[in-house]
Specification:
globular, binds NADPH dihydro-nicotinamide-adenine-dinucleotide phosphate, binds Protochlorophyllide, eight-stranded mixed β-sheet, alpha/beta
């Protein structure tokens, strides 16, 4: 299988394992890119052991890597000393829990018996069916309607949740859309380009509104988690696959991303669906850090982001061409070795929700080959505090926050 996949990816890029080249391949129309990488990025697909060891020796500010104590994925199965302080179950909202990472995380948490999972989904029936067929214990989850592509729906969801009277301990902003083959932009109910509108602006409003609820929680560790990705980080090999994320000076966002009197892209450029997704992930990671800077000290809430690994079989790739969907999983399994199953990725995100060892705020978590966590380093753009502030202020205006 490795050979087969490799033969479909003839060579101008090398994939390195612990400093040694393990495979090389070159541009194809299928993977659609031609680029060369600076040497310092070539080993990045192996973003694991070497790097975390090296980083353990350095003290870096928030938003960049810092060494850390590794914990392994199964940690969520046991309640740590912190969790034992709290007698009641934790309540966690997970957006986009009807498939992929969100569903696997809901299952991993619900199965511990220590969490009520609120599955915040745009398709109620699909979510109910998914929860049932995944075997999530009925008493440990509830589906609530949320369409992130509509600011009214976000506000309605928050009202409905508050009316339920449940406390909120953890919010997980997980849902996303990826439209790599779209020739023209599509738009949210409020007229924002759909990928940034859903993945960033919908979540931005949701997280801003629900922060008050999380603040009030008496749970032992309250958290707000926004799922990020390697592909938004241009300090990695994956993040250098064109089109690269780049928010520029945010001129398109200032214009409202409506594709009419302003560009549909954050940087003001031509529409590109793959870039819009990667840009939205940069927004997710910048937003997490801005939350941390503004609210961590005052509220004690832990803000975190993560790259759970390449979950190559999820619904995220539903809009991609069939050949991509066929070849992407073996490519990630046998060539980049970045592949993780939905189940494993779900355990990883569940760990960021509940592991007492991952209570540090302002961190972008990743996992090494042994499935141990480490504090990963974000790209220059994804850790740019000035850009994060500007993004925050423009996003506030767009979603109608004072
Ligand atoms: P999926 O497509 O399987 O899951 C995405 C979820 O988002 C679905 O439940 C989908 O709902 C939901 N969703 C989409 N649009 C909306 C909306 N408007 N309102 C509410 N929910 C919506 O993809 P993944 O599980 O792969 O993606 C989950 C997260 O993981 C994303 O943030 C993604 O960026 C991130 N990620 C994924 C990686 C991967 O390799 N797959 C790698 C790194 C990060 P529905 O079921 O109705 O379509
Ligand atoms: Mg990528 C270590 C190398 C690595 C990793 C971990 C990923 C993850 N990718 C890697 C390398 C490469 N990819 C290389 C060398 C190529 C060129 C052949 C390549 C191509 C590629 C494409 C066309 N990769 C992709 C795509 C997508 O359409 C996916 C994407 O960008 O979605 C936004 C994707 C991804 N690669 C990943 C991950 C995790 C993705 C999915 C995305 C995400 O959610 O960010």
């Amino acid at each position: 299988m490795a050979l087969k996949a490799a033969s479909l990816l003839p060579s101008s890029i090398s994939v390195y394992k612990e400093g040694k080249s393990i495979a090389s391949f070159k541009e194809t129309g299928f993977f659609g890119c031609s680029f060369s990488l600076p040497n310092h990025l070539k080993a990045d697909c192996n973003y694991s052991l070497i790097r975390s060891k090296e980083l353990r020796r350095r003290e870096l500010p928030i938003g960049t890597i810092k060494a850390q104590t590794a914990t392994t994925t199964p940690a969520i199965a046991e309640a740590g000393p912190e969790a034992k302080k709290t007698l009641r179950k934790g309540n966690v909202i997970i957006t986009g829990a009807s498939s992929g990472l969100g569903l696997a995380t809901a299952k991993a948490l619900a199965e511990t018996g220590q969490w009520n999972v609120i599955m915040a989904c745009r398709n109620f029936l699909k979510a109910e069916r998914a929860a049932k067929s995944a075997g999530i214990p009925k008493e440990n989850y509830k589906v609530m309607h949320l369409d992130l592509a509509s600011l009214d729906s976000v506000r309605q969801f928050v009202d409905n949740f508050r009316r339920s009277g449940m406390p909120l301990d953890v919010l997980v902003c997980n849902a996303a859309v990826y439209l790599p083959t779209a020739k023209e932009p599509s738009f949210t109910a409020d007229g924002f380009e759909l990928s940034v509108g859903t993945n960033h602006l919908g979540h931005f409003l949701l997280a801003r509104l629900l922060l008050d609820d999380v603040k009030q929680s008496d749970y032992s560790s309250k958290r707000l988690i926004i799922v990020g990705s390697i592909t938004g980080n241009t300090n990695t090999l994956a993040g250098n696959v064109p089109p690269k994320a780049n928010l520029g000076d945010l001129r398109g966002l200032v214009g409202g991303l409506n594709g009419l009197n302003s560009s549909s892209m954050i940087d003001g450029g031509e529409f590109d669906g793959a870039k819009a997704y990667k840009d939205s992930k940069v927004c997710n990671m910048l937003t997490m850090q801005e939350f941390h800077r503004r609210y961590h000290e005052e509220t004690g809430v832990t803000f975190a982001s993560l790259y759970p690994g390449c979950i190559a079989e999820t619904g995220l790739f539903r809009e991609h061409i069939p050949l991509f969907r066929l070849l992407f999983p073996p490519f990630q399994k046998y060539i980049t070795k970045g592949y993780v199953s939905e189940e494993e990725a779900g355990k990883r995100l569940a760990q960021v929700v509940s592991d007492p060892n991952l209570a540090k705020s302002g961190v972008y978590w990743s996992w090494n080959k042994l499935s141990s966590t480490f504090e990963n380093q974000l790209s220059q753009e994804a850790s740019d505090a000035e850009k994060a502030l500007k993004l925050w202020e423009i996003s506030e205006k767009l979603v109608g926050l004072p």
